[in-house]
Task: structure prediction
Amino acid sequence: MGLFGVSNGYGSLKRVLMHRPDIELDKVTEENKTEFNFKRAVNKATFVNEYDIMLSKFQNHGTETILLTDILKDDLDAIEYINHRPNMTYTRDLAVVFNHGAYLMSPRIKSRWGDQFIVGRAFEKLGVPVKGIVEPPGYIEGGGVQPIDEDTCAVSVCDRANETGTRMLKEMILGKEVKYYLEVPVPKGSIHIDGSFMVIDKKLCLVWPENFETFPCRLYEDGKIGFKNIMFMDFLKERGFDCIIASSDDRYAGYLNVVVTVQSEKAIGFEQDSDILKGMTSRGWVLDSFPASELWQGNGGAHCMTCPILVN
Result:
C-alpha cells in the first residue's frame, strides 16, 4: 500500500490529514464571526470534545488520522500561524489529493488566505508531492472538488470558487488525474458542492436535486475540444447512479456531510434522523454518528474536517 493516492470519493479511507482545534478558536468573537464564517463564538471545550468523539470514530474504523500539528510540531512558524487560524480545522478546503500528488487550493475568504501553504508544508514532510497550486485571481476550495470515480471529477462554481479557479484546476488535472471534468455551477448561497451532493459508493450518491436545477454543467473530456452541456441530474442518470434524495431540512442541517471510511459498508457523519440515514441504512450501510451541536457553529461537518491522503 502506498503512502498516498485518491482516485474516487467512495473507497475505504486509509490515511487522512486532520487538525484538532485548540487555542485558535478563542479568536472567534461575536464581532468577527462573519469574517471566520462561524455562526457564533463557540464553547471551546465542547467544540473540541465533539471533535475528539468524531476523531475517535475514524480511528476505530481503521483510518490513520494524521494531525497537522503533530506533523508540523518542529515548524514553529507554522504552529504560531495555526494559533491564529480558527478555520484550519477544515482541512478539506485547502488541498485535494489525487493519484499523482496534491493540488493546493485557493481559499476565497480572507480568514483562510495562506492556510493552504501550511498544509503544503505537511505534505512535504509526508512525502506527498505538490503537483499544482491554484492562485488568485482564481479561487477554489476542496469542498467544491469531488472525485466521482476513477476517471471523473465534479467541481462546483459556487460562493467559494470562480470560473478562473475551476479552469485553472481543469488545466492541471484533466488528462493527468482524470479523463472527465464536470464543471457544476450552483446558485448563490451554496458554499460548496459537498453541501448538496456526495458520492458514497461506486454508483450511489446523496443529493439535494433542487441545487442543480438552475444551470447546465460543462462536461470536458480529455482529448476533445470544447465541452458537452448537461444538467447535473441527467449526468447522474447517464452514469447509472442510485440517488438517495435529501430533503431541504437534511441539506441545511449538514446531514449530507458524511465521509466513507469502509467501502460499501461504513461512513461517519452527524447524529441525525433523516431521509439520508433511512436511505443509507435501508441499503445496508452503517452511519456512525457523533454529536455536533457545537461543531456545526463553525459551518462544517466530517467531510469538511478531513483531507483524504490515501483511499483504497
